[in-house]
Each structure stands twice: as structure tokens, then as C-alpha cells.
Specification:
The complex is a heterodimer. Chain A is built from ten helices and ten strands. By secondary structure, chain A is α+β, with helices and mostly antiparallel strands. Chain B folds into three domains: 128 residues, Butyryl-Coa Dehydrogenase, subunit A, domain 1; 110 residues, Butyryl-CoA Dehydrogenase, subunit A, domain 2 (Beta Barrel); 133 residues, Up-down Bundle (Butyryl-CoA Dehydrogenase, subunit A, domain 3), CATH 1.20.140. In chain B, α5 runs antiparallel to α6 and α10 packs across α13. Chain B starts with 15 loop residues before the first helix and ends with a helix. Classes of the chains: A alpha+beta, B alpha+beta. At the A-B interface, α5, α6, α7, α9 and α10 of A face α1, α8, α9, α10 and α13 of B. The structure holds flavin-adenine dinucleotide. The site of flavin-adenine dinucleotide has 18 residues of chain B, from β1 and α13.
Chain lengths: 368, 387
């Protein structure tokens, strides 16, 4: 089965689900999207080319698809697979944060150190709250990164039924639920100790997923705005004939194209780490995409709304389906400022000789 | 057209460019060690160093996309892109051959007679023949089709009269490609033609126009009845507008449209590394780096489109508007990140002097090669055609 035809089928499913408002029955909508993807044989298998997954998540952003596609395809699945955990079939989400995690089977023979006794296996009992977990109420399972009982990060797979939910939403009405864990027993086969690098990877993967969603929504903003300015007539002419409108509209297109390019480059780096000189080229490209996507939201939504006039400020226009999401997505998994700091620290530490090599992805490895 | 830019696909540079890039970096390291002045902002406008150009040409890096039979090395657009982005990022003195390499060479290859090609192209590729752009005039800037310079038929060629303005390098270069009216016409885009004019002709008089920094790159180029032989005509009479549009597409599409001030950022990072750098400074450096990297990806898309023979005017206009605004934004951001007094009279190459140069050159970034307002018009026209 070719990746392209899979993508086409998946895009067709997302197009069908387009006008479902996330604010109404989001859990059911997500379930429907998943069922339809499965029915159309369009649910990407685990070994799908990551660049195709990024493209699909862009499409989800464009449509405002009410389902955790970015979370599942670009974050939860690859992280679980990297840690050697079984990857469930259904919609997934990811969360991280401090939890109280203890060994279920304490090794009574072990010396009690500062971190407590060791376990005879990795089974854990966890308590605490994970905040604003995307689409938690629609996900079958949650991939959770937290600090393990013997220090160092662990990745756990929690099943939906194991957590109590306090439901919340983001500005677009997408579910952002708190998950409350009360002494949940997680069997050893759903726990893995993971390297610190995986924690970083989880961050930049989440950032890239958001960037892909934003890039898609930005394209929607452009399309809606162009359609509006070419059809709406004032002073006897379409709005698009006015110089002032052209000037702004061009900037809108530019900003959207800019993040599309950054996301595509990050997707390519992810898909093909083999051609990249540095192991962290994919990370750098993902950070850049995350940073630029978040940063461009303000300008894109400002211009799209300004050129729409009052109708864009209401539910009469679909513009809000894109813009309200973008206003939330830009801050979830790291605002542009957080990404900027991360990139800037890396650049300054690399020194002036490494700035350009990092940008070109050739020779930027500081260890070289 | 413009919408297709949203999702044109990432450009993967061919693997052989890695080696080429490394060769350019090694060459630049050697130049730096030998005392060549690098690291200067806007060096493609003011870094005039014919000896450096010749050393580049010896390696095949001038006119490198020209076919071998005309003295080039027949490399593709993407390879040329890699070479020039490395030179620009390093702030190398490339202004001598810039116009010849970027537009005069390709234009002569496309429109020139076999004789013109044989005469000019090998010289361009050898780094021995430099060109100026003779388009603008006092009353014809954005509205280029309104040029007043005229060429009239004579018994054995043309007589050229008029004054070109802002002609960069006319005082040091060898030739200019001049846009002139050869026929009056209802259609203002008709009746224009291009001529290759020897800047050392006794009837060509260049008169300096100082930049606001006092530097001399601009000139009036007075064409005082220049007698041109038939073979000075480039392309066909009356085709000047189409030809000049093609030339502008080349002029607008390259990485010099976002890298002019990068050497200042590079210098800043070097300064910051020696001081204690706080999170706010990191964030501002990160902002610039993210935008720079993103614009570069978009710009690579233009090079790939040109390489594939696809039209790239809208895409190029988009990158040029974003990129040239970025060049200015960078200068302002750098002032905030590490406030120092900009001093044009400080020792050359020191941070305050580089900052001063970048500031004093800043009005030019968003004007040259077609203003940003005009570019945005091109973008929205592209949108209308695609919707
Ligand atoms: C550094 C530099 C190097 C240059 N080198 C050369 C060279 O080597 N050879 C050469 O021939 N020329 C050269 N130029 C000239 C350059 O091409 C012109 O400056 C440019 O085309 C703009 O023309 P103008 O300066 O006459 O401005 P104008 O066209 O008078 O424009 C002035 C302002 O009005 C705006 N404007 C004009 N028309 C419109 C419109 N229809 N809609 C909206 N806004 C509009 C412009 O955007 C600008 O902001 C150079 C310019 C610079 C700055």
C-alpha cells in the first residue's frame, strides 16, 4: 500500500469530518474520526514515513479535525515504540509532569538509599495529577513521562479507565482534561525506564505536532481570507483590489508559507536522519518549526481577522475554527518564547563558528 | 500559484552538495587565514575585491551554472545556491562579480547571439568581466517601463542617449546592460530593448552618488550619444520588457535577499559567548535563528523551482519581502540584545563598526531589486490567478 494513497484516503476522511465543532461532544467526534479512518483503511500503520504523518497532521490542522491525530501519530506512538512498549491501536495522547511513583513490589533486601528501596520489577503505583492533557477523554491510553522511583525518567502507558478526569477545554473547545491518579497500579510491562534524551525528544515531537497543526490552520486562514477579499465588495470593488488590502494579504501568505516551509523541513529531517550530518539535525529543525509556528500565529490571525471584518469575529464565518485553535496551540507544548530560549541557548553555546552550520544542518554538531 | 507555496514540499539538497559546501568552507577558512576581509554585512553590495573574485573563479565558482562550452562548469542552480549562500553567510567580498554571475551571464546565455556568448561568458566565468544593471532612472523606479533613455537606429547600429541612476558599480565595472526605449508604442511594455554597453566608452560618463554613509557604489550613468554597433543589442529589439522581467526574476530570487546582515548576527553570537548571556538574550537570538532558518527553507524552494524550470516569480517575491524585512529586523534585534554604540569610524571589523554598517545600509534592503510594496502586489496578483 503506497503512502500517498493512504494519505489521500485519510485526507478524504478528515474532509468529511470538517465542520464538526470540537465544542460539541468532542469525545464522540474523535471516536467517529477514528472509526472512519479505520473503515477507510486510512489509519497509518506504525512504520509510516514520518513526513507523511506530518503532512496528515497538517491536514488535521487545516480541517480542525476533532481528534488527537498529532498527539497519537507524532508523539505517543513513536515514543512508546522507542521505549519498547506495546503501541495500542486507538487514539492516544501524551502527558508529562511530576507524579508520586513507587515500586509495587519493593525489594526488601535492597539498601534504602535517598530514593528509597528498589523494586523487584518495574511495576509502579502512581498518584498525582496530570494537567491539561490533550484529548484525554477521547484517548484509549495516555503515554506518561515522569520521574521514576529510582531517579531518571520513566515512560508509562496508562489506560483511560485508570484515571479520573476533570474536564477542561482550550480556547477552541478542544478537550484539555486534568487526569487524577489515585494509587494506580501500573504493571511492569507498561513501564519503561528511558534515557533523558527521550524526554527531550518528547518535547520536540510535541512541538513539531503543534507546528504541523498550526501550519495547516494557517493555510485555512489564507484560503478563507483570499476567498473573502475576492468576493466581498465595498466601494463598488472587491476588497482585494485595494492596495492596502493587498499589502496585508501578501504578508499573511508569506507568514503562512514561512511556517509551512519550516514544518516541511522538520518533517524531512525526521524522515531522513540518515542524510543529516548531525544526530540532532531533526531536533534543531523541529525546534525551529515549533518556534516559528507559534511566533507567526499572532500576525496570521491578526491579518486574517482584520481582512474579514466583523463577520470573522462571529460564528457566521468558519475563520474562528482555525484562529481559536491557533491561539491555544501556540502556547501548548511550549510557547515561542520557550522555543526561542532553547534555540538561542544552543546557538550561543555553539559560538559564532557554529551558527551558520546549524542553520544549514551541515557541520553544526558542537562535538565535531 | 501563490497558494501552492503553502506546502511545496521540503527541498533536499543533493548529497553531492555536502562536499561542495565543505570545499567552500575550507576555501573561506584559508582566505580568512590569509587576511582576506570577511564577515562584513552587505558585502555583496560593497565588498569589491576583483582578486578574490578571480580566486573564486579559479575554483569554478563564478558563472558556475554556465555551460562548459562557454567557460562555466555546468553545475545546477542548487549547487550555485550552496556556494553563494556560503559566501554570503561568511560576508565575503563578492560584489565585483555579483551582477555578472547572477543575471548578466544567464541573460546573455538566454538571449545573446552565439558571438555574444562566446565573447562574454568565458570572461564572466573567469572572474574577469564585471557588469552593472542599467535599469532605473530618476523618474523610473518602480515604474520601470517608463524609462526615458532612448536608442535610435543609425547606419551601423544604435545611438544611445539618457541617464541611468543608482547604477551600482558603474565606476569600476566593465559593462552595463541598459534598458532603453527603441520605439514609441501604445503598449508601454512594447518598444523597449536591452543593450550591452561598454562602461569605458568615451560617451559614457559616470558621476558618483554617495550613499548616506558616504560610501560610493551608486552612480549616475550618463549615456551621451553612445554609438553602439549592432552587436550591442541583447536579444531582439522590442523584447526588452520580457527580458528585463526575466532578469529581475533572477535578481529577486537569491539568498542575498535574507543574508545581507547575517554576519552581524554571527558577530553578536561571538560577543555573547564571551559575556554572561541571560534567558532574554537567548530568546532573542533564538527568535532570529528560527526565522532565519525558516526563511532559508522557503528560499531553497525558489532555487529548486528554478532548477526544475518552474516559474518562481511569486515564490521569489514572497521570500524577498520576508527576507529583506528580516535583514532589517535583525539589526534592530541585535541592538536590543547587546546594546553598544554603533560607530562607523571604529576600527573596521569591530562589532560597533559592523553594527554601524548594517544600520547605515538598512534603508536599501527593502528597496533594491524592486520595493517590498511592489513585491506584495506580485504576490496578490498570483493569488488572484490561483483562486
Ligand atoms: C541599494 C540599491 C541598489 C540599487 N542598484 C541599482 C542598480 O544597480 N541599477 C539600477 O538600475 N537600479 C538600482 N537600484 C534602484 C532600485 O531598483 C529602485 O530604487 C527601486 O526599483 C525603487 O524605485 P525608486 O527608488 O525610484 O522608488 P519609487 O518607485 O519612487 O517608490 C517610492 C516608494 O513608493 C512606493 N510605491 C511606488 N509605486 C507603488 C505602487 N504602485 N504601489 C505601492 N507602493 C508604491 C515604493 O514601494 C516606495 O516605497 C538600486 C536601489 C538600491 C536601494
Amino acid at each position: 500500500m503506497s503512502t500517498e494513497s493512504l494519505l489521500e484516503r485519510a485526507a478524504a476522511v478528515l474532509a468529511g469530518a470538517q465542520e464538526t465543532d470540537a465544542r460539541e461532544r468532542p469525545a464522540e467526534s474523535a471516536r467517529t474520526v477514528w472509526d472512519e479512518l479505520r473503515a477507510a483503511d486510512a489509519l497509518p500503520p506504525l512504520d509510516t514515513d514520518p513526513a507523511a504523518l506530518v503532512a496528515l497532521v497538517c491536514e488535521a490542522g487545516y480541517r480542525g479535525t476533532p481528534a488527537p491525530l498529532g498527539e497519537t501519530l507524532l508523539a505517543a506512538r513513536p515514543l512508546l515504540a522507542a521505549a519498547g512498549l506495546t503501541v495500542p491501536d486507538g487514539p492516544l495522547t501524551v502527558a508529562s509532569g511530576p507524579l508520586d511513583a513507587r515500586f509495587t513490589h519493593v525489594d526488601t533486601g535492597s539498601r534504602v538509599g535517598p530514593l528509597g528501596a528498589r523494586g523487584t520489577d518495574d511495576a509502579l503505583r502512581v498518584s498525582g495529577t496530570l494537567h491539561r492533557v490533550p484529548w484525554a477523554r477521547a484517548a484509549d491510553a495516555v503515554a506518561v513521562l515522569t520521574e521514576g522511583p529510582s531517579g531518571g525518567p520513566v515512560l508509562l502507558l496508562l489506560e483511560a479507565a485508570e484515571c479520573r478526569r476533570a474536564e477542561g477545554t482550550n480556547l477552541a473547545g478542544e478537550p484539555r482534561d486534568d487526569l487524577v491518579l489515585t494509587d494506580v497500579a501500573v504493571p511492569a510491562e507498561r513501564v519503561r525506564r528511558v534515557p533523558a534524551a527521550l524526554v527531550r525528544e518528547a518535547q520536540w515531537r510535541a512541538g513539531l505536532a503543534r507546528a504541523a497543526l498550526i501550519a495547516g490552520a494557517a493555510r485555512r486562514c489564507v484560503e478563507l481570507t483570499v476567498a473573502h477579499t475576492t468576493s466581498r465588495v465595498q466601494f463598488g470593488r472587491p476588497l482585494s483590489h485595494f492596495q492596502a488590502v493587498k499589502q496585508e494579504e501578501a504578508k499573511l501568505v508569506e507568514e503562512a508559507a514561512l511556517i509551512a516551509a519550516a514544518v516541511e523541513a522538520a518533517a524531512a529531517a525526521l524522515a531522513d536522519p540518515g542524510t543529516a550530518a548531525d544526530p540532532d539535525t531533526a531536533e534543531f529543525a523541529a525546534c525551529v518549526a515549533a518556534a516559528q509556528a507559534s511566533a507567526s500565529v499572532a500576525e496570521i490571525t491578526r491579518i486574517a481577522h482584520q481582512l474579514h471584518g466583523a463577520i470573522g469575529f462571529t460564528e457566521l464565518s468558519p475563520l474562528h475554527l482555525a484562529t481559536t485553535r491557533m491561539w491555544s496551540w501556540r502556547d501548548e507544548d511550549g510557547s515561542e518564547h520557550a522555543w526561542f530560549r532553547r534555540i538561542g541557548r544552543r546557538v550561543v553555546e555553539g559560538g559564532s563558528d557554529r551558527l551558520w552550520p546549524q542553520v544549514t544542518g551541515v557541520g553544526g554538531d558542537p562535538s565535531r | 500559484m501563490a497558494l501552492s507555496v503553502l506546502g511545496a514540499g521540503a527541498v533536499q539538497l543533493p548529497p553531492e552538495t555536502r562536499q561542495l559546501r565543505q570545499e567552500v568552507r575550507d576555501f573561506l577558512d584559508a582566505e580568512r587565514a590569509a587576511g582576506t576581509i570577511l564577515g562584513r554585512p552587505d558585502s555583496w553590495l560593497t565588498g569589491w575585491d576583483p582578486a578574490f573574485t578571480r580566486r573564486l573563479a579559479e575554483r569554478g565558482w563564478v558563472g558556475m551554472a554556465l555551460p562548459q562550452k562557454y567557460g562555466g562548469v555546468g553545475r545546477g542552480n542548487l549547487e550555485r545556491y550552496v556556494v553563494i549562500e556560503e559566501l554570503l553567510a561568511a560576508g565575503a567580498p563578492v560584489s565585483a562579480h555579483w551582477v555578472a554571475d547572477r543575471q548578466a551571464g544567464p541573460s546573455i546565455l538566454r538571449h545573446g547571439t552565439e558571438e555574444q556568448r562566446r565573447h562574454f561568458l568565458p570572461r564572466i566565468a573567469a572572474g574577469a568581466c564585471f557588469f552593472s544593471i542599467g535599469m532605473s532612472e530618476r523618474d523610473s523606479g518602480s515604474d520601470l517601463a517608463s524609462v526615458q533613455t532612448r536608442a535610435v537606429r543609425t547606419d551601423n547600429g544604435w545611438r544611445l542617449t539618457g541617464t541611468k541612476m543608482w547604477t551600482g558599480g558603474a565606476h569600476v565595472n566593465d559593462y552595463a546592460i541598459v534598458l532603453a526605449r527603441t520605439e514609441d508604442s501604445e503598449d508601454r511594455h512594447a518598444g523597449l530593448s536591452q543593450f550591452i554597453v561598454d562602461l569605458r566608452d568615451p560617451h559614457v560618463r559616470t558621476e558618483p552618488i554617495r550613499l548616506l554613509s558616504g560610501e560610493h557604489t551608486f552612480n549616475y550613468c550618463h549615456l551621451e550619444g553612445v554609438e553602439l554597433a549592432d552587436d550591442a543589442l541583447l536579444g531582439r529589439p522590442g523584447d526588452g520588457w520580457q527580458q528585463v522581467t526575466g532578469e529581475l526574476a533572477l535578481e529577486r530570487s537569491g539568498p542575498e535577499r535574507f543574508l545581507s546582515t547575517l554576519p552581524l548576527l554571527t558577530a553578536l553570537v561571538g560577543q555573547l559567548r564571551r559575556t554572561t548571556c541571560g534567558p532574554e538574550q537567548h530568546a532573542r537570538v533564538g527568535r532570529l535563528t528560527a526565522r532565519l532558518s525558516s526563511i532559508r527553507q522557503l528560499s531553497l524552494g525558489v532555487a529548486a523551482a528554478l532548477e526544475a524550470g518552474r516559474p518562481a516569480d511569486v515564490h521569489a517575491a514572497l521570500v524577498k519581502d520576508l527576507g529583506t524585512r528580516f535583514e532589517g529586523e535583525l539589526v534592530n534585534a541585535v541592538r536590543e540584545i547587546l546594546p553598544v554604540t554603533a560607530r562607523f569610524d571604529a576600527t573596521r571589523g569591530t562589532y560597533p563598526e559592523l553594527l554601524a554598517t548594517a544600520i547605515l545600509h538598512s534603508p536599501g534592503y527593502t528597496l533594491r531589486g524592486g520595493t517590498n510594496e511592489i513585491l506584495r502586489g506580485i504576490i496578490t496578483r498570483g493569488l488572484e490567478l490561483s483562486s
